[in-house]
Write a structure and sequence with these properties.
Blueprint lengths: L2 H40 L2 H10 L3 H14 L2 H10 L3 H14 L2 H10 L4 H11 L2 H9 L6 H10 L2 H9 L5 H11 L6 H10 L5 H16 L1
Length: about 220
């Protein structure tokens, strides 16, 4: 057979083999990633060890850490940290702990070097987790109008009071958040309380609320 024909058929078979291997590798990686995520969500330490040994996609490590911290699986958290203790993984853990109100885990993530405290504050405010909000403020996170909005959106009057005491005096953002987050009419008392507390003599604050409320209604 002509040499060039042999070379042609060889190149075709080689390409098919490469495509087959790539497809198998992709399917294998997907199974590893699925094993890793399921282990983080269920607290299965043995499955986690297997998945980490095989090597999950780095893009899923953050998600797995977030899920483990939401559920409070300390042994899974330990395993992930031993595998990858980079800042973005710790930040994901901090956000998961802030979302679920797990104070000890949030504190641990900060001690290990998590830095995304501002976003953590917003998450904790919306979830109504006062202890975590206080801890983050004590660690130097500036209270802001966005934090007020998050507290209002979650319907948490005690968090709004805490932020107000710490310097976030513009209640218009909390009121706007409450109006935006009140899907079932559950925040009526909070909304009435905030409206009564806003100083209408302070034209700047009142106009700020009116503008924010118009935006919320438009959304």
């Amino acid at each position: 057979m002509n040499f060039f024909i042999l070379r042609y058929y060889f190149s075709i078979n080689q390409t098919k083999h490469q495509n087959f291997c790539q497809q198998n590798n992709k399917q294998m990686q997907e199974r590893i990633d699925d094993m890793f995520i399921r282990a983080c969500q269920s607290g299965d330490v043995i499955a986690l060890e297997r998945a980490l040994l095989l090597g999950p996609d780095p893009l899923w490590i953050d998600f797995g850490m977030y899920a483990a911290c939401v559920h409070g699986y300390s042994r899974v958290i330990d395993g992930i940290i031993a595998y990858d203790d980079s800042i973005h993984v710790l930040d994901a853990g901090l956000h998961g702990a802030c979302s679920a109100g797990r104070f000890e885990i949030a504190s641990r993530m900060l001690e290990l070097g998590a830095t995304a405290m501002v976003q953590g504050l917003f998450i904790a405010c919306e979830g109504g987790h006062r202890a975590i909000v206080s801890m983050l403020i004590d660690r130097g996170v500036d209270v802001s109008s966005r934090a007020m909005y998050a507290a209002g959106s979650g319907g948490h009057c005690d968090i709004i009071d805490l932020l107000f005491e710490c310097g976030a005096i513009d209640l218009s953002h909390a009121l706007c958040g409450a109006c935006d987050g009140d899907r079932d009419g559950d925040y009526c008392d909070l909304i009435d309380t905030l409206i009564a507390r806003i100083d209408r003599e302070d034209s700047e604050t009142w106009h700020s609320f009116v503008e924010l409320f118009d935006v919320a209604c438009a959304c």
